Please model this.
Amino acid sequence: MDITRKLEILADAAKYDASCASSGAARKDSRGSAGVGSTGGMGICHSYTPDGRCVSLMKVLMTNACLYDCHYCINRRSSNVTRARFTPDEVVKLTLDFYKRNYIEGLFLSSGIIRSADHTMELVIEVARKLREVHQFRGYIHLKTIPEASQELIALAGRYADRISINVELPSQQSLNTLAPEKNLARTEEAMGHIRGKIEERHAEKRKPDAPKPPPFATGQSTQMLVGADASTDAVILGCADKLYTSHRLRRVYYSAFSPIPEPSSILPLKAPPLIREHRLYQADWLLRFYEFKVEEIASTAAPNLDLALDPKLSWALRNRATFPVDVNKAPRELLLRIPGLGVRNVERILAARRYTRLRLADLVRLRLQMKKLLPFITTADHHPARLGLDSDSLRARFLPPPEQLEINFDAPPIPATSDFFSVRSGEL
Amino acid sequence: MRTILIEPEYEAWRAAARQLLAQGVAPEEVLWTDDRQEASLFVGESPPDSAAVQGASAIKVPAAFMDLARSVAAHTDARRWGLLYRVLWRLTRGAERHLLAMATDRDVRQLQDWGKAVGRDIHKMHAFVRFRLVGTDVATGREQFVAWFEPEHRIVRLAAPFFEKRFAGMDWSILTPYECAHWDGTRLHFTAGVSRSSAPDEDALDDLWRTYYRNIFNPARVKISAMQSEMPKKYWKNLPEASLIAGLIAESTGRVQGMLETEERAAKPAPNNAYLKSLHAMNQSEAAAQNHESDLA
Ligand code: SF4
Model:
């Protein structure tokens, strides 16, 4: 099989992994070496495909042969897809050739599981080792790891990679039992716990000035959860994400709408990818991480699913009208963050500016805020929203998109509206 | 009113602005231009000689302003020099030292917008430059690459250090219509702009890159506006992969339809593999342990 054919198969096999992030790595570059590569700061999206996703890393599998039978996955053993396998040198060469042309930020390498977890990890690690040690490659490397692989191998993967990840895939063991019978949530979390330990060890030792340099280790770990393949509610999904953020300090949880694949499983019939739901989950995730919201405030036991028609912050505000209006000239930061249509950056701008002036509506217009969204929820020096009807039933209706946009038409999936504080177009937000 | 003619560069503006500020020349009294022809319509004046004015170095300006000014200077809007000077004046002589904290101020907002546009242009240059291999240096054995890029603003010098850090191990040139950057392993230097025909059109790897692009695209989730807002059409002509976009969009519906019509595959039994067996055993004993726990509860 020639390299073009292999690349076709092994890129196609990798595309259901949403993460393509290349940010958050330690600062390093190629100056003074014969190699290429640099990381640190914001990752760069070198291209975008018509699915709106960013192309940052070359995302491929080592092989798409797999012992497991995850029913949402095109590579499962029950699929009749053509199988291919890269040699480590082929991946190394592709990565370097693509990198030197500035097509990519680095490599995201994953693999179907062949022979055993350890054997598969060894193949993946060998690519990273060659890139780093033989070619002095300083670009971004993200390695997918397998929870059942030995700790030594995970440590080795972390030594070469900037980021490592293990996908939880589904938020409950019950769902995994049906859809990914080989996978186990407890073991995944245990492995994440070990990785967290290693990441923190490295950071802690770095702080001591005289201590010997700790072995390099990835600066972050992330994971992915499938949305819409099982019956889990948004409350369950967000609860699982929140737990991963707090107990294992994950950098990112990616939500991936279950998408039709060319090799459907009889256990998991194909359906339209729930793109709006995925979008709302990313917004909710953002609220958890940067807006000091709690899961129960966004998705409760009583209402476990997000409102698909409105963004979760606006939806929360409409359910908690007693909190509003908020005075932008006086309210503390936490409260400003709760105002629909006001993002973190603009909250900072408001806090800075109001030290010197009493903010008026014209000031907010100059910040280019979404005034229509904002007005019912704020007071300024020259605006009090009483007449805009915080109490009125029609307030919610004012924010609803026209009804036809709510239907998910499979042939032409609607494009979710992006709000100012957030945009989901890729792994990188 | 005096007209100040400068080179379209941050350093030139800074030198002139310092002098004017030291002399106490108010912003309303200055007409800035970096266009020689325009300047000749007025009684053009070169910036005052820096040595001639005393005390210019004593003016304290927030560091954040100098960073912002450096970006804004790279913008192509002709009004930027005058606005930079006005904000500088307000920060110093106008005693509005906190001015930069006022994103609600019209002048500050305008500078920030220009700075942001320049920052975005730099970011897009880092993203969308495509190097083409043109040869190998016989003496050093280093590969040599050339890229063509058309930035919107005058950002080559601001964007170049990134490429130096990232591509230290290869020789490269980035050609643009107004200025070119070159790296030979030891020195970054700049030359005048050239025309597009000076740069190679293709690279042998472009086909393989298109193969990757075609296959990483998921036809089941088309979101064209998201793609275009991050990768506006104006960049497409210099991106080898962009020629695929129309075709990928056109095929996507049919491809998804094909998936939906495909017969569902039945689950295959597990192959005879020791690792898989151990995994299933582990899963079963864990499930049993959990059941046991819930029995007790
Ligand atoms: S382990 Fe599961 S998800 Fe991963 S490649 Fe194999 S079948 Fe797909």
About this structure: Confidence is low (pLDDT under 50) at residues 405-429 of chain A.
